[in-house]
Amino acid sequence: MSITRIALLVAWLLLLAAVLLPGAHPMQAAGRWLFWILIVAHAIECVLFFSRLRKAPGSLAGHLWNTMLFGIFHIKTLPRG
Predict the structure, then answer these.
(1) What pTM, to 2 d.p., does this model score?
(2) Would residue 81 count as lying in a domain?
(3) Is the pLDDT of residue 81 over 80?
């Protein structure tokens, strides 16, 4: 696993903690907003690149999951065409 993917997984875990843990710290509110913005942005990427994800070898569900986690960093690893 690349350092980019590890860093992104750590970031997702921190954002998920901001969403799930109780508290009213200002940074926690910012983390909640960022979490939902990223969910929407990655969902849009899934829609925009759906045909490329479908044509790529391997599991479509796996590609969708990886796109939700890693976004364009996952899509860049897929073959074009």
Answers:
(1) 0.79
(2) no
(3) no
